[in-house]
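Section 3.1 - Work completed
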Amino acid sequence: MPRMSDESNKPKIVVAERLSASAMARLEAAGAVVVLEECDEPALIAAVADADALVVRTYAKVTAAVIEAAAGGPLKVIGRAGVGVDNIDLPAAAKAGIPVVHTPASCTYAVADLVVGLIIALQRGILPADARLRAGEFKQLRLEIPLRSELQYQTLGVIGMGRIGRAVSTRLHHGFGMRIIYHDIREVGWLPFAAESKPNHEAVYAEADVVTMHVPLTASTRGMIDAKALGHFKKGSFLFNTSRGPVVEAQPLADALNEGRLAGAAIDVFSPEPPPPDHPLRSAPNCILTPHIASRSKEGVAAMHDVVEDVIAVLEGREPTYQADPALS
């Protein structure tokens, strides 16, 4: 049974970053909800000592120190409204016996849709064409836009063939006729499209016209795209990252774009966020930057905030639908 608050006779639920009205209403029906004004480490440490549940989104960092502050207290569950759980110290939570729940299936289609849009926008030069046309150019501009092969003649390289990697591949193979190659550290099994597994990342980089990253942020994926990895990329290829910022090292990517080794890149996630004024990709050519919006469809956000259902389930002694694996860290 959850610890009962003297004031409300309900479990205390700390929300570090406010959720949707629907999600907040469900939490308020299940417990005494406290919304933090700040979600930095000191604020979290102060809040978790007598909390039964902690709910976070993207920017609250549930560090080992935060979990240690909750040790011995009533904290029974940490909820992450989103797919990635890299902002939570999973080993520390596991050691403390605190389950971490999240929403790994929430924004699959939203991210996949954005990736397809970014590929088309980048390869067809839509953004610079719009800006230059508005500045008065037309005839010469039509001649200067680089000619690219149609997608049906290109190869898509997918790093991480999980839910999102599959959704991207489905759209681009069945909808546009792209050939699909991929690498994943786990056995992928049957896929609903023709695809060729490659033995390592480098084999994908060397052959793909378009490389799209769909991996969690772990010790092995941090800095995965560095100068060495970029050296394996097919000349004139494109890189897309909608996974996590630290997966791609910004300066080597900017160098590859400035030197023309890569034809373009589109980046939705950064390290840090937001990217500072001197971030190297802000001045790199042929690079589309978006403010971590891949998951932000109406349905995707609603599904991420549905993490409250698993938080409530744990508080009520029921099994959650999605509990994070400490191996993800």
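Second construct:
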Amino acid sequence: MSGAIVHGGGIAQAAKLYGGRPEDWLDLSTGINPCPPALPDIPARAWHRLPDRELEEAAREAARGFYRSGARLPLPVPGTQSAIQLLPRLTDPAKRVAIVAPTYGEYARAFQLAGLAVDAVTSLDDIDARHGLAVVVNPNNPTGRSFSDLELAALAARLHSSGGWLVVDEAFGDMESLASMAGRTDSNLIVLRSFGKFFGMAGVRLGFVIADDSVTTRFADWLGPWAVSGPALSVATALFAQDRQTIHAGITERFAALQRILGGAGLQMIGGAGLFALVEEPDATALHAHLCKAHILTRRFDYAPTWLRFGLAPDDKADARLAAALESWQRRP
């Protein structure tokens, strides 16, 4: 599996195909907060100097409080994608890797490029002693499927008995009602958290690894010094201290608006996780193209041609634009 994974975004490419300036497109292809909080002041020294230990420690402590990770001190990384690239180094190459699928495609790609055998499973019961590592995206992208802490804790214990790791990706966990796994102290549990999705600042490329110190120490060594920029650490420290409920309420309002628009257009929503909704539509390819002609980008899936994922629109004006585009679409008879 050497080909690149197709992700959301790509407005510039869509504009080349369908016209218009990229800044005039409505990007609903990604699952991030469309209404980010105001950017906090960034000290001049964060730009001028390499990030020192004091700046990193402040961000780690702020992340510990925000993610409620207890004894676990989150490690900042330059986006959770960087952590995914390191996961193959942890597992026994003689064992298989289990990934609850379908899900974020970079997991399978990273392991397969490292020469590891990957099993795409649909149930936690399919994961056993053959597997040196298992990945559960919770809630899942793109289906929104979620497992309880009890189910995941039982899986962690089962894997621990055979020397395996459990990776729980909570990139969309800030919008879930389930408790986070981050505060658990299972020595074989690794939790990945994304900063950019909830705060709507994906461009800072920041994530956190929450795991046993022996794991975060290895990740830090593998990433090398100054892996995360000073401005990113400064932004995270400031925003982690803000009222999360205000941001959460705004996202909830935007998600409710999206649900109303999709329902009003007669589309069948089959999943979602607060920052996106998944729709099943027989004419999904045609609908995607129709929306592109209106300069609205959604997310297609090559492995599920009847699926379209819709991210959140930023305001009422964008809602009306999406609703009008859907109203003008004609399904094939």
